[in-house]
Amino acid sequence: MSQPTFSQKLQAGSTFPDISVTDLHGKAHTLGQTGEGQDWQLIVVYRGKHCPICTKYLNKLAKHKNKLMDAGVDVIAVSADSKDQLESHLDDLSVDFTLGYGLSEDNMKALGLYISAPRSEQETDHSFAEPAIFVVDQENKIRIVDISNAPFSRPDVDILVDGLQWLRKPDNDYPIRGTHS
């Protein structure tokens, strides 16, 4: 029996690491740095084109993009897929937020993600990250972190979006949770 390996998980309230991905237009995006008009970013790490659950999740999230933008939350989804895999995945996606590709294994480890090997060449041709959600604020602090080791275990989109809308209301003055370990 092999020995378990351990990875360092990012902590709520910590500074988000400096990681960049590329979009289909060749533009580099530094995760945690938002688009115009938004000062928070929702970073969705997904498994890749081979995962139908990820496709469904991203398409559902896209339906909430305007609510997130109105709340000042930019959205980016990233995977370890290649440019060709992402281009092919677009046939099944109906999203209008940024999609980044090329998340490296070193990036995955820096994010504390669970990493899986493909079950076969038909699945994909590279190791990939299991799902994760990060919400990063204007100070590059992690407000929310959710790291999973399975495609069917991730935050419900409706609850996540409702929670972010509530969280962004200044009167709620909600602190970063989970900072005591």
Automatic annotation (TrEMBL):
UniProt xrefs under SUPFAM superfamilies: Thioredoxin-like (SSF52833)
An example Gene Ontology molecular-function term: antioxidant activity
Coiled-coil residues: none
Pfam families documented for this protein: AhpC-TSA (PF00578)
Domain Thioredoxin: 10-169
Alphabetical list of Gene3D superfamilies matching this protein: Glutaredoxin
PROSITE patterns: THIOREDOXIN_2
Protein name: AhpC/TSA family protein
Native source species: Salinimonas iocasae
Lineage: Bacteria, Pseudomonadati, Pseudomonadota, Gammaproteobacteria, Alteromonadales
